[in-house]
Input
Amino acid sequence: MPQINAAAALQISMLLFALPAQYFISQWYGTDSAERSQITERIIASWSISTRSYFSLDAWADCLKLWLSKTRTCLHVELLILHFRNWYYGENKTKSGDNAAKPRSYLAASTHVHSPKPEYIKFRVGQVIIHRRFGYSGVIVGWDVKANTPEEQLQPRYPPVKQDLKDTPHYRILINKANGFGKSTAYVSEEEITVIMGLEVVHHPDMETYFSGYDGSKYIMQPWLKKLYPHD
Output
């Protein structure tokens, strides 16, 4: 029997809700088809906004991270939330005998120590970067030796002509809120970014979770992050 995750269940619920909603509209607002169509569109748009705000794991996680960053109660909260997101959205798990293997961490969120550091990893955690194509700035908070995302995300991201990029270093970025880019983080290949100097201020609610200050060339990692990237 196929498995139904939370996102699929929500979509099914919305579809089931649509029929009685349309019946209600037809009863209370007359039989004019144009009017019913406009009202239906407004209800669906309102429902869509509500689901993104109240039924989205990302929205609740971002609120939690913002509150915890203000209270400075836990330096590991970002990693915990990342691991929970990986579990929530479903990870590729392999089995050995009767026991399932340990869950895999994606998007440079692994808690294993990145040592030794390969010479071909060009950039370091704490460096400020700018995206070559989109123009936003940000700071590196983690890296993988190659793209580490679920396979279903790799295929649309890297078409056949760019398949070789999957095997190049990838970096997790906290995006500078001052750019107004609309996203708070990014996971990009090495060829998409370049390091910039002289930009000390990166505005992001998680900066104090990852860094304790700025040394003139890059941000200084918090002790827990330095343990994960001892050579950066």
Q: What stands out?
A: The helical segments are 6-28, 33-54, 57-71, 77-89, 151-157, 207-210, 223-228. Residues 6-28 form the longest helix (23 residues). The two ends are 47 Å apart (CA to CA).
